[in-house]
Design a protein that fits this description.
This protein is of the alpha/beta class. It is built from 5 helices and 6 strands; from the N terminus they run βαβαββαααββ. It has a domain of about 90 residues: Alpha-Beta Complex (Ribosomal Protein L13p, Chain: A). The strands form 2 sheets. A 4-stranded parallel beta sheet has the order 5-2-1-6, covered by helices on one side. The protein has a two-stranded antiparallel sheet with strand order 3-4.
């Protein structure tokens, strides 16, 4: 018997639309990373791009738990002395709210060439409008965890 391996050209790619309004960034990012890699499909193969396209809307309404908006920092460096720039998550969200989601999803994908390709299949928009209506995206419901009351 031979082991069956998925091929990227044979993959059936769907378009999903995810509403990020009032969602926690970590829980949303794990769901998006799963869809991008194709782990929700029975034909999942780790070294093949078998995943779907994901459109994320309302990234300006995304939430972070605790004090992460004030304490989490993002760094940039151009490899010249004294060029390190840092900004908090609140500043990054104010400038470009899609940056927070891109960084979060990028951290949940493996660090290889395939993950850089997978990240290009995620399209994030700060508002509710997106230019991908032609692809007929289907809504994807991200399950919110329930809180236990005592």
């Amino acid at each position: 018997m031979t082991t069956w391996m998925a091929k990227a050209e044979e993959a059936e790619r769907n378009w999903w639309i995810v509403d990020a309004a009032d969602m926690r960034i970590g829980r949303l990012s794990t769901t998006i990373a799963t869809l991008l890699r194709g782990k929700h499909k029975p034909t999942y193969t780790p070294h093949v791009d078998n995943g779907d396209f994901v459109i994320v809307i309302n990234t300006d309404k995304i939430q972070m738990t605790g004090n992460k908006l004030q304490t989490k920092k993002y760094y940039r460096h151009s490899r010249f002395f004294g060029s390190m720039k840092e900004k908090t998550a609140a500043e990054a969200k104010q400038e470009d709210s899609t940056f927070l989601l891109n960084e979060s999803v990028r951290g949940m994908l493996p660090t290889n060439r395939l993950s850089r390709h997978l990240l290009l299949k995620m399209k994030a928009y700060p508002g509710a409008e997106h230019p991908h209506a032609v692809q007929k995206p289907q809504p994807y419901k991200v399950v919110k965890p329930t809180t236990k009351s005592k």
